């Protein structure tokens, strides 16, 4: 093991995020190349690319890392696992990390409440950074939403609009659900009557336009949209709209790799991107 560099295992290496994360690790950017190294490349069981050098997968030089579907085979080759795949397999990867005392960065979305409590329980034994959105912009917005909701939430009709590429499997987005949860918690903490009257039960993940009486989520699936979220606070005299547009998946990959470095192999607990950026303490 290279004493100085943190070794990263990347799952879902044939995926949009998996490939982007590997590219960011191997591209040699100073902020990463002096801190992390690719330790393992994981794909789904019995995939035809098993045995291939991961460099070939991302169309670059041979990297000396062979794609595998067997985490057991490479458990001594990595320190932190970075996972952007799908809920069911993420739960398997999480179990492996708990059993082998490996820290994990989870970017996968579409978890149900049982999955989320598994993540919470796992964080008693290992370090986990779990965020539906690893961009800096959404981390900032979610902190500002606490303040904004405290001040105008009770007197606004609140809606969330999210737009993503037409290959996205979960709906609404994890980010939209996180934004809604942030607003609901801020309303609750003001103990406002309006908050008590709001129907804050979560929509099922599959609903296209999951709406409560006051806080609705509307989803667009089109083209190659990377990820856009708008929160609207609509009052009787004015309207506030806050929008974030991801322009490249690199923003998510950088957030995830920064989080892996921040987590290291010794932190224990459940964190989000705001914790790793120090935003939650600042705002
Ligand atoms: N948190 C964030 O910042 C952020 C950013 C982008 C995407 N995401 C989320 O990350 C996930 C992946 O997004 P994507 O665009 O890369 O998707 P994708 O479909 O391009 O890639 C998914 C990867 O997971 C693998 N996979 C799926 N099911 C599997 C299984 N059962 N066993 C093993 N491997 C399996 C696929 O083979 C593929 O490599 C989604 O949940 C998405 O919402 C989160
Ligand atoms: O591309 C995706 O899928 C994304 N999903 C996240 C979500 O579900 O919130 C956000 C970033 C892009």
TrEMBL record:
Annotated InterPro entries: DapB_C, DapB_N, DHDPR_bac, NAD(P)-bd_dom_sf
Location of the Dihydrodipicolinate reductase C-terminal domain: 137-277
Residues binding NADP(+), per UniProt: 44
Transmembrane segments: none
Record: active site: 164 (proton donor/acceptor), 168 (proton donor)
Enzyme class: oxidoreductase
All copies of domain Dihydrodipicolinate reductase N-terminal, residue ranges: 7-134
EC number: 1.17.1.8
Binding, NAD(+): 12-17, 107-109, 131-134
Catalysed reaction, written as an equation: (S)-2,3,4,5-tetrahydrodipicolinate + NADP(+) + H2O = (2S,4S)-4-hydroxy-2,3,4,5-tetrahydrodipicolinate + NADPH + H(+); (S)-2,3,4,5-tetrahydrodipicolinate + NAD(+) + H2O = (2S,4S)-4-hydroxy-2,3,4,5-tetrahydrodipicolinate + NADH + H(+)
Pathway listed: Amino-acid biosynthesis; L-lysine biosynthesis via DAP pathway; (S)-tetrahydrodipicolinate from L-aspartate: step 4/4
Main location: cytoplasm
Entry keyword set: Amino-acid biosynthesis, Cytoplasm, Diaminopimelate biosynthesis, Lysine biosynthesis, NAD, NADP, Oxidoreductase
Pfam families found in the cross-reference section: DapB_C, DapB_N
Similarity annotation: Belongs to the DapB family.
Protein's name in the database: 4-hydroxy-tetrahydrodipicolinate reductase
Lineage: Bacteria, Pseudomonadati, Pseudomonadota, Gammaproteobacteria, Enterobacterales
Gene that this sequence comes from: dapB
């Amino acid at each position: 093991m290279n004493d100085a560099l943190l070794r990263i295992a990347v799952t879902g290496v044939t995926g949009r995020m998996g490939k982007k994360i590997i590219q960011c690790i191997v591209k040699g950017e100073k902020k990463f190349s002096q801190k992390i190294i690719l330790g393992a490349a994981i794909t789904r069981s019995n995939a035809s690319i098993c045995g291939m050098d991961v460099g070939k997968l991302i169309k670059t030089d041979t990297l000396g890392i062979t794609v595998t579907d067997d985490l057991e085979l490479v458990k001594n080759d990595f320190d932190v696992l970075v996972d952007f795949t799908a809920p069911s397999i993420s739960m398997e990867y999480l179990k492996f990390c708990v059993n082998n005392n490996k820290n994990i960065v989870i970017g996968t979305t579409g978890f149900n409440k049982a999955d989320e409590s598994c993540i919470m329980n796992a964080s008693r034994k290992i370090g986990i950074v779990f965020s539906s959105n690893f961009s800096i912009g959404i981390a900032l917005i979610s902190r500002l939403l606490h303040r904004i909701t405290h001040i105008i939430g009770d007197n606004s009709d609140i809606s969330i609009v999210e737009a993503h590429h037409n290959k996205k499997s979960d709906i609404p987005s994890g980010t939209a659900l996180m934004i809604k949860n942030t607003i609901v918690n801020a309303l609750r903490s003001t103990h406002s009557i309006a908050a008590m009257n709001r129907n804050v039960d979560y929509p099922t993940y599959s609903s296209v336009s999951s709406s409560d009486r006051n806080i609705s989520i509307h989803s667009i699936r089109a083209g190659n949209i990377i990820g856009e979220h708008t929160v609207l606070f609509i009052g009787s005299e004015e309207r506030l709209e806050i929008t974030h547009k991801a322009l490249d998946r690199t923003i998510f990959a950088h957030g995830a790799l920064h989080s892996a470095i921040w987590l290291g192999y010794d932190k224990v607990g459940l964190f989000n991107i705001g914790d790793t950026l120090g935003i939650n303490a600042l705002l």
